[in-house]
Amino acid sequence: MPRFFPALIACTALALPAAAADLELSFYTGYQGAADSRVKGNDGDQDFNFTADWDGKSWAMPPYYGLRAMWWQDRVGYGVEFNHAKVYATDSTKSDNDFDTLEMTDGLNLITFNVFYRWNGLWGGGKLTPYVGGGAGFAMPHVEVTRGDSTTSEYQITGPAVIAVAGLSWAFAEKWAVFGEYKGSYSSNTADLDNGGELKTDIVTNAFNVGLSYTF
Which of 3, 88, 95, 162 could tie 103 with a disulfide, CB 3.0–4.6 Å? Predict the structure, then answer.
């Protein structure tokens, strides 16, 4: 995970208005996959243009997870989120297109600024709260590409990202809740390769998350 993100969450929380009961911090993990996408660019000497088959490998190290800070004003919430999603090109994708490595696996790393809406205590005697939300921000993946003599392995800001979320939380204690949700994301990525080339791909992820929230 990029080292700056815990500081970003802390600074965001401190910057929020002083309404302690409305600040919610969440952690989640789950299952994440990615749709096939077009990959094009050049490695400095040769152009490439093909469709990549991506694996998410949610439980492989480093695992899939996310962190979210939300400031709720009754039903409407505003916040910031870090999503450590991952994509690995399959072996057949790599071998068919002369890549030794093609992945973003120390995170596709989506940083978004979110707006959510919830229906407080709608079901279950006031304990079950459905919610929906969305956000926009940017992708900061760890780009790992090896093709021929070119090897790229570094964090880059590669382009814009958006997310959509729908879920249900269960308040099992005064300040604690567990939740399950669907989360989809889209990011448009243009990565610089170490030999002066570039790689472009738009990635769509689909995830089913489970998590824990604490409200201050």
Answer: 88
Domain encompassing residue 66: 4-15+23-215
| CATH code, domain with 203 | 2.40.160.20
In the chain, DSSP assigns E strands to: 23-34, 37-42, 47-52, 54-55, 65-73, 76-84, 87-89, 101-104, 110-118, 128-139, 142-147, 150-155, 159-171, 176-192, 198-215
Take residue 51 and report the two structure tokens written for it.
């469709």
When divided into structural domains, the chain yields a total of: 1
% of residues, the chain, pLDDT over 70:
90
User: Other C-beta atoms within 10 Å of 53: how many?
Assistant: 17
Predicted TM-score (pTM) of this structure? 0.90
Pairing status of strand 150-155 against strand 198-215: unpaired
DSSP assignments along 17-76, one per residue: -S-GGGEEEEEEEEEEEE--EEEEEE-SS-EEEEEEPEE--TTSSSPPEEEEEEEEETTE
Mean pLDDT of 119-131: 96
* pLDDT, position 46: 87
Name which of 160, 166, 161, 168 is nearest 205 in CA terms.
161
